[in-house]
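Lecture notes, continued. The same structure-token format from the folding unit now serves as the input rather than the output. Read the line below as a description of shape only.
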């Protein structure tokens, strides 16, 4: 059994850890409010824009723009993996990395990655995956300028032919307790054919087209040349906002659970400390009583 001094030191250590986790919980709660507001503010527009460009790709000749052109056969895919820069957020980082790797494995072709976030980059590096670019240190609520280099890199890989398809592995923000890792096809901007089990399991489905014909002004080529790169960048920007909101929500919940566990552990250790003190006092009293009894017997 541990001594009272050892238990007291452990209680102090657990209390210090509880203070740290409580502070991290407060910081995460502040960040998740900002990230959630940013993600929800642009979600409706981003979803509508994604529906438009995919339906546009279905109704338009793919020769009109390189971003609409299919690369057949598909021999190599690129995944933009969005993870966190730090840990202490439960299984958030592991879940999205596992989802991306499982999707790439079931897709059955060569895969390379653009790592957004240090944790995802480190996990991919340990597993020996090919990382062509990495982006770290994004703010809690990034701007479009922070995401633009990521989109430019992905578009360049697709247009150069080094990647036949581009996907975004992100975590959708459902609420503070639920975050869902998903994969969304970014390029080519065409309706997704759900051919494999991996695509059925992970890919985001796009609603069916509401409009099949569009009126262009001034002309189709000019509109597509301006709109498609910007809409592609917007989809990646929305994915980063969703991922950041999910990360801070996961961190807030994890730190809250850690704080609650620290409080419960302090209570258990306090009970053990009181038992140890009681045992020590009882032992001392028995020693005193035994000494007094011995003195009485020898007549002192």
């Amino acid at each position: 059994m541990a001594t009272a001094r050892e238990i007291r030191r452990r209680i102090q250590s657990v209390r210090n850890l509880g203070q740290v986790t409580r502070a991290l919980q407060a910081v995460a709660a502040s960040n998740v409010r900002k990230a959630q507001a940013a993600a929800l503010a642009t979600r409706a527009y981003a979803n509508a824009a994604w529906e438009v460009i995919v339906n546009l790709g279905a109704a338009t000749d793919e020769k009109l723009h390189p971003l609409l052109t299919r690369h057949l056969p598909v021999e190599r895919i690129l995944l933009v993996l969005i993870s966190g820069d730090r840990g202490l957020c439960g299984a958030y980082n592991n879940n999205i990395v596992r989802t991306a790797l499982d999707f790439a494995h079931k897709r059955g072709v060569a895969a390379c990655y653009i790592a957004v976030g240090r944790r995802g980059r480190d996990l991919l590096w340990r597993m020996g995956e090919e990382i062509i670019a990495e982006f770290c240190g994004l703010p809690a609520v990034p701007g479009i300028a922070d995401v633009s280099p990521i989109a430019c890199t992905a578009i360049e890989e697709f247009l150069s032919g080094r990647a036949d398809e581009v996907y975004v592995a992100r975590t959708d923000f459902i609420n503070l307790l639920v975050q869902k890792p998903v994969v969304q096809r970014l390029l080519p901007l065409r309706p997704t054919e759900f051919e494999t089990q991996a695509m059925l399991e992970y890919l985001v489905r796009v609603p069916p087209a509401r409009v099949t014909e569009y009126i262009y002004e001034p002309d189709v080529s000019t509109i597509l040349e301006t709109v498609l790169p910007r809409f592609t960048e917007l989809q990646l920007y929305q994915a980063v906002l969703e991922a950041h909101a999910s990360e801070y929500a996961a961190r807030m919940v994890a730190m809250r659970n850690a704080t609650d566990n620290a409080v419960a552990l302090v209570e258990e250790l306090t009970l053990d400390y009181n038992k140890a003190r009681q045992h020590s006092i009882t032992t001392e009293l028995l020693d005193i009583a035994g000494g007094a009894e011995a003195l009485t017997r020898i007549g002192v």
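Point for the exam: Strands lie at 76-82, 110-116, 131-135, 165-173, 179-187.
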